[in-house]
Amino acid sequence: MGQIILSGVTKRFGDAEVIPPLDLDIEDGEFVVFVGPSGCGKSTLLRLIAGLEDTTAGRITIDGRDATGMPPAKRGLAMVFQSYALYPHMSVRKNIAFPLRMAGASQAEQDRKVEAAAKVLNLTSYLDRRPGQLSGGQRQRVAIGRAIVREPSAFLFDEPLSNLDAALRVGMRMEISELHEKLRTTMIYVTHDQVEAMTMADKIVVLNAGRIEQVGGPLELYRNPRNLFVAGFIGSPKMNFISGPEAQRFGAHTIGIRPEHIGVHPTMGDWRGVVGVSEHLGSDTFFHVHDTGLAPGLTVRAGGEVALRHGDTVFLTPEADKIHRFDQNGQRL
Amino acid sequence: MARAVTPQRKLLNTVLAWAVALLLFFPILWTFLTSFKPEPIAVASPPQFLFFDWTVKNYVDVQNQRNYFDYFWNSVIISLGSTILGLAVAVPAAWSMAFVPGSKTRDLLMWMLSTKMMPAVGVLVPIYLIFKTLGLLDSRIGLTLILTLINLPIIVWMLYTYFKEIPGEILEAARMDGASLMSEILYVLTPMAVPGIASTFLLNVIMAWNEAFWTINLTVTDAAPLTKFISGFSSPQGLFYAKLSAASTMAIAPILIMGWFSQRQLVRGLTFGAVK
User: Is A237 exposed, middle or buried (0-12, 13-18, 19+ CB in 10 A)?
Assistant: First the structure.
């Protein structure tokens, strides 16, 4: 089980309202990602669910029980921290066994569960080392191991991969996704990286200034962003926004078009511009096109082999059915 | 970029360091030497440094007049007792100040420290009267209590700075892992803070061992520690420098030896937070 329901959950630090009243349902077994820019309240929301912060108002229900005032240990959740938060004075074995020891499990049970978790996470040969003798990725796995042995009703991840280098991050991302497939336990994952959100989530919760901007599957958010914020936040590189007469032509205050939905042609097209900086990624090339008279700059994705030089004149054509229209309040039309 | 250190500069630094160390150590050395001099030579002018008739008579006389070990045990009991009692109070106090600070925590810490700024003699009369009323005069319990109280601000401050260095997330992890407050302090915080607690312990033992004002003023014989032992040789029959030196040497020797063996801990304790 691992159903979590937030109703009217509010958090204030003094006069500052970090999270205005918020409602959210998380179903059992879901992989939910909270994503948003830094300071949007996503970590605070996670800590409220964990019980590490007290709610100012509202109700948190975990598996049908009111958990609002419960201490963290009683909520049956496990958390993986950004800094790993391993106990530096204990061996890996003791770190993983710690929650079991606190729960009063027998030595035999502790050993059995630690061995099992170590096997899943490829830590068997490191069990007698101290955290200080492990690499970043291994430490992260120990932190996950410590969470697994509790057999929690939900896992909470607070930006667990931000201290790892890019290559390791991709590897760990896969490992966590595989772990979710294997355990089918509810996971709540906080990140500021929309790529992590898109690749891992069943359901993404986009947060901005403590408010939920949109909740939905990765592709739903990508295809039908509810407002300008979500449209700009989900997708990489960012969606291009154009306002003014060109937007009015489409009956909108602002239109949005993703870089991958604009065609590039050297001689003909709807919009004329000049090529600025190009980013060659091998498989793709991103061109920044200026002097279109529509927006300060437009980003366009082209194939890796398209060769355009700085200063070349190009013509751009948006795919008509991929244009997103927004009103003056930034809401989708 | 590292500064280039020339051999001359290195030599100069070494000489200076030795000079400062000798200057600081000289009074102890002089006391030690004087304790082996016959009384007339101890006050001789010009002073004699090494070439005199070395004698242990002073030590024998001192021991005959007063039993050193009575005082020694009182010192041990009072300094260890007040340190352990102080730590028992200060660990939870520093925990709450470091990890769940309130809006007044800073002020509270400053206030605690400010009590050390007042001269002790300012409260001698009230404390003396309280001790008299409670029957604590010349008792080990009374001295242990007063030393605990006067050193408590320093213990709390030292532990507070140590605890501040421990990432709060580790304690939160323990909380998530099902640890109660007691388990959190016992199994996670304390083991991580052992170096800090050890140097606090050592420093406090030294401070309590050397504390002279309260130990001298609140004791007569039963609970008198080594500070009283020294002062006992400084007045009634005029000054006997050699005997006084012998008493002082006997009084400071144990703590000096302890300090010697725990140098590394002590230095770490004294400079903690200063260099990072």
Answer: middle
| pLDDT tens per residue, range A170-204 | 888 998 999 999 999 999 999 999 899 999 999 99
For chains A and B, CB pairs below 8 A equal 59
Q: Is the ipTM of this complex over 0.90?
A: no
Q: How many Å lie between the alpha carbon of B273 and the closest alpha carbon of chain A?
A: 20
Contacts of B192 in chain A (CB under 8 A): 87-89
Instruction: Give domain A241-326's CATH architecture.
Output: Beta Barrel (2.40)
Q: Does some domain include residue B124?
A: yes
Q: What is the CATH number of the domain that holds B93?
A: 1.10.3720.10
Residue type, A283: S
- Residues of B within 8 A of A78 (CB-CB) are 176-177
Question: Which amino acid appears at position A32 of this protein?
Answer: V
DSSP A24-36: EEE-TT-EEEEE-
Residue in A71, A88, A99 closest to B177 by CB? A99
Domain A4-232: CATH superfamily is P-loop containing nucleotide triphosphate hydrolases (3.40.50.300)
Report yes or no on B7 lying in a domain.
Answer: no
Q: Residue A218 is encoded by which pair of tokens?
A: 């990765």
All structural domains of chain A with their residue ranges: 4-232, 241-326
Torsion angle defined by CA atoms of residues B45, B46, B48 and B51, in that order, rounded to the nearest 10 degrees:
-110
Amino acid sitting at position A121 = L
Q: Which residues of A touch B173 (CB under 8 A)?
A: 79, 81, 85-87, 146
What is the distance between the alpha carbons of residues A19 and A6, in angstroms, rounded to a whole number? 12
State yes or no: pLDDT of B273 exceeds 50: no
Interface test with A, best of B166, B170, B171, B177 (most A CBs within 10 A): B177
Contact B167 A85 (CB under 8 A): yes
Is residue B228 a contact partner of residue B215, using CB atoms and an 8 Å limit? yes
The number of distinct structural domains making up chain B is 1
Other CB atoms within a 10 A radius of the CB of residue A197 amount to 25
Q: Which two tokens stand for residue A315?
A: 């013509």
The distance of A125 to chain B (nearest Cα, Å) reads: 24
pTM score: 0.78
Q: What are phi and psi of A149, to 5 degrees?
A: -60, -20
The H helix count followed by the E strand count for chain B is 15, 0
- Does B85 fall in a domain? yes
Q: Which residue is associated with the tokens 């102890």? A: B28
Residue B267's pLDDT band, with cuts at 50, 70 and 90, is confident
Quick check: is B155 in a domain? yes
Quote the domain boundaries for residue B190: 66-231
